[in-house]
Here is the input.
Amino acid sequence: MESGLPTTSSDTLDARFAAWRAAGHHALIPYLTCGFPEPAATPAILDALAEGGADIIELGVPFSDPVADGPTIQRSSQIALGHGVTLADTLRIIGDFRRRGDTPVVLFTYLNPLLRYGVDRFIDHATAASVHGVLLTDLPVGGDEELEAKFEASPLQLIRLIAPTTPPERTRAIAARARGFIYYIARMGVTGASREVRASLVEEVAALRAVSSVPVAVGFGISTPAQAALVASAADGVIVGSALIDTIEKGGADAAREMMRSMREAMDALKERSS
Here is the structure.
């Protein structure tokens, strides 16, 4: 199916996750910093991720003062900023990518670039670029009701974050306002590849899914096919960031494609064992 048109009510992340859940399919969601390792490489990497089996792609806007990103993603942002990559560039690249194919894109950004761009202008331009959702990492629920209301009234689904330390009452409040999917943080601290997944993670995700009508995707630290399959056993989606950035730095688009294929195969094998 060709894309390039604004997302409609029949083509939202909610609708896609519902279809995937009915099929026993778990979403693979890679993160890429726009403009890394250079602006000209981003379109080919996006295509490679989709070809490798990505169901949704998170494309990050390079930002100079991140609070959630670890050394790997910080470095990728600094490299992209050195090339002069902006939010406007990111939207243009997403629009071009969406005209080439059907893989949804979630825009990952901090508030400062968005506020400088202009919220209303951003919503209009992101919708025109066929962005499905927006992850505003430093906008907690209730942090800016006017801004949140603008997103909730728009076609863009506002992705919410929940941490292992989020109290139950707050978790329910966040889940009630979430759209598209909930981003569950797999560990405390900043992003970065991990050697192992916490033993309690599967139980935590199951508890969150029990109080949320919105799908749950897990990120922070997932770096191997085995880890992706383990997380997929409990979650609706698996998010891979720092390990992918490392892979791209070493092997470019081809290596990114193969990484997605290996994770997709591990996650699909889980589905086959449970069917």
Q: What stands out?
A: The chain has one domain: 23-274.
